[in-house]
Amino acid sequence: MRRRPGLSARLKLALSYAGFLAVAGALLLAVVWLFLLRYVPDNSQGLLGISPNRYLLVHTFAPAAAVAMGFLLVFGLVGGWLLAGRMLAPLTRIAAAARLAGSGSLSHRIRMEGRQDEFRELSDAFDSMLERLESHVAEQRRFAANASHELRTPLAISRTLLDVARRDPSRDRDEVLARLQTVNARAIGLTEALLLLSRSDRGTFDREDVDLSLVAEEAAETLLPLAEQRGASLVVAGGEAKARGSAELLLRMVTNLVQNAVVHNLPAGGTVTVRTAADGVTCLLRVENTGAPVPPELLPTLTEPFQRGTERVRKDEHAGVGLGLAIAHSVVRAHGGTLDLAPRPAGGLVVTVRLPAA
To answer: Which of 121, 89, 119, 94 shows the shortest CA–CA distance to 109?
Structure first.
């Protein structure tokens, strides 16, 4: 948006300083006139015949006062210009950093020295904003690269299967179609997961009262066959915990957490416990499962997209796309809550979700 050219802030401050000095000088002269010169007799004899009269005092004092006023005006302009330049120097650094950020360079930081004042606070806030923005952009770039790779894989497999079928007409068509269907289902699942992740990140959804205990029971009922297939026991306990949000997204969040707990568990005899609670201000959902020990340094990466625990690729039918915890974390964040991961001493993971109560 183009604006009309005008005076710079530095020049405005300099004129303001000069104006204040001129007004202060004029007030001093007015005080001299009101409280001194007006009481001096204006006659040829002066005061008691020995002091100069008002006429002589005024004509003697007026040129000196005019010179002093001119000096104050010039001194105010020069001093105000220098002082304003010194005071506005931090803003110049901040503006330069903003221009660099606007051109795409997010790694630059102001790191202003000196005491804590308003400019220092503005500089620190701008540095924090740049740091978060750089982290967000880097995360989005990693996400785009990973999403492109994940989407390209099923497409490449489909093309390979079609090429093989075209070169070898005698190949079993049912086998080729079955493999194509599996690859296509994986691509559709990945696309739906990406759309859900984008929707939860935007936070554009209708909100209603949702009981997390009922959501947990529904998710457990859906995943009970999977738990029985993998030899894991699934327990849901706890009381009513009403949160405010999207029932669909919260169900997907709980389902992802429970499915992740079932899949990443012991080969046999594992357990998954889901508990809900509320304290009037916060709703609590805790999903705890047995399994292999989880290195603490791995925990911060588990909620990043396309991370699959300790293994980059799983070979069973529940390989997933590495978006389960990422979607859950995004849904929790969109509802104003927090998601914490902690390793169990005996192995496995404890996922704790805290949401504002309805």
So the answer is: 94
pLDDT in tens, 18-58: 888 888 888 888 887 776 766 666 665 544 455 566 667 67
**Contact (Cβ atoms closer than 8 angstroms) between residue 234 and residue 272:** yes
d(CA 88, CA 100) in angstroms, rounded, equals 19
Residue 282 pairs in a beta bridge with: 356
Q: What pTM value is reported for the model?
A: 0.58
Counting Cα atoms < 13 Å in the Cβ hemisphere of 24 gives 11
Maximum Cα–Cα distance across the chain = 137
Q: 144: which residues sit within 8 A by CB, 6+ positions away?
A: none
8-state DSSP, 357: B
- From the number of C-beta atoms within 10 Å of its C-beta (0-12, 13-18, 19+), residue 290 rates as buried
Cα(247)–Cα(82) distance, integer angstroms: 62
Q: How many CB atoms lie within 10 A of CB 56?
A: 14
